[in-house]
Amino acid sequence: MNAMLPLLLQAAPPPNAGGRGLMITLWYIIGFGFIFYFFFIRPQRKQQKKQEEMLAQLKKGDEVVTTGGIIGEVVHIKDDRVTVKTGDTRVIVLRSRIARVGTLDAPASGGEPAS
């Protein structure tokens, strides 16, 4: 029994090992949190803010594309409803359902259609 005691004492972990492992794990979690924020959350917020600004600047006469694929010209805006004329038909859509301002071959930022 006395011969096994030194072997058992050598196999025991040092008393400070638990705190060190916890700190390393904590740093990994913090690192993954930063990576997740900068690669996923921040770009999505920037895109959302840009979309909100585009919708706030929407005016009569703008050519728009809805999320349903309807392409037309804005003829009337009232609160969150937008009347879009496409061909001989007028359609009322929610302002939030406008995907872009400008034609399909124009830049998404809205400016003048490409000639």
Overview of this protein structure:
41% of the residues lie in helices and 24% in strands. With 115 residues, the protein is of the alpha+beta class. The protein folds into two domains: 16-55; 59-101, SH3 type barrels (Roll). Strands 4-3-2-1-5 form a five-stranded antiparallel β-sheet, with helices on one face. The protein is rod-shaped. The model is unreliable at 110-115 (pLDDT under 50).
Please trace the helix and strand order, writing H or E for each element: HHEEEEE
Mean pLDDT: 83
Report the oligomer.
Answer: single chain
> How many domains, as an integer?
2
Which CATH C-level class of the largest domain is it? Mainly Beta
Number of contiguous helices: 2
- Based on Cα principal axes, name the global outline: rod-shaped
Strand order in the largest sheet: 4-3-2-1-5
Overall number of strands: 5
Question: Structural class given helices, strands, pairing?
Answer: alpha+beta
CATH topology of the largest domain: SH3 type barrels
CATH architecture of the largest domain: Roll
Beta-strand content bin: 15-25%
Largest sheet: 5 strands, antiparallel
